[in-house]
Amino acid sequence: MGFLIYIYTIVTLLALVPLALGTTKEQLSSRECEDLGFTGLALCSDCNTLSEYVKDQQLVSDCLKCCTEDSDDSMSKITYSGALLEVCMRKLVFYPELVGFIEEEKDQFPSVKVQYVFNSPPKLIMLDDAGQQKETIRIDNWKREHVLQFLREKVKAASAI
Q1: How many angstroms separate the CA atoms of 80 and 123, rounded?
Q2: Paired residues of 127 in beta bridges
Q3: Taking CA atoms, which of 12, 51, 127, 138 is between 20 and 30 Å from 31?
Q4: What is the average pLDDT score of the chain?
């Protein structure tokens, strides 16, 4: 009888390990993740940390469906063909760093367009070669330097397009 309990325990643990590691997780679209409140570049390690403090398994599960693997190499190599900087024109006054970027720096990035959408929080919508949305990143608290650095690293130069 003890041997059967031991085998059952081992089989159960083996079935749960892939779930805990997130290896069999399904991915949600950027829009679905944003609707759930997960925006930006959430790393899977952040979801694991979240699970230590929050006992809501559905929340942790949603986080794992929206996260990006922690591999620095894979993240640093991802580039996009363009981006939309989406912001509400009425709220722009509350984001002087973004105003400065739009007025003084945006011309450095011909493939980045500013899109004014009513009541939209400031965000970068990253686009692939076909102009399709690939990722959405909230930039509410970003400084101008952060926006510049991110776009230099993640948006292909105009000559590379």
Answers
A1: 15
A2: 82, 133
A3: 51
A4: 80
- What does DSSP assign to residue 78? -
**Do the Cβ atoms of 22 and 44 come closer than 8 Å?**
yes
For strands 112-116 and 82-87, give the pairing.
Answer: parallel
Segment 68-127, tens digit of pLDDT: 776 655 455 788 999 999 999 999 999 999 999 999 999 999 999 999 999 999 999 999
**Residue 20 amino acid letter:** A
What angle in degrees, to the nearest 10, is found between the helix axes of 44-53 and 57-66? 170
Q: What are phi and psi of 123, to 5 degrees?
A: -155, 155
User: Nearest CA to 105 among 118, 116, 114?
Assistant: 114
Residues in the chain, total = 161
Token pair recorded at residue 155: 């948006």
With the CA atoms of 68, 153, 86 and 43 taken in that order, what torsion angle do they form, in degrees rounded to the nearest 10? 20
Which amino acid, one-letter code, is at 18?
A: P
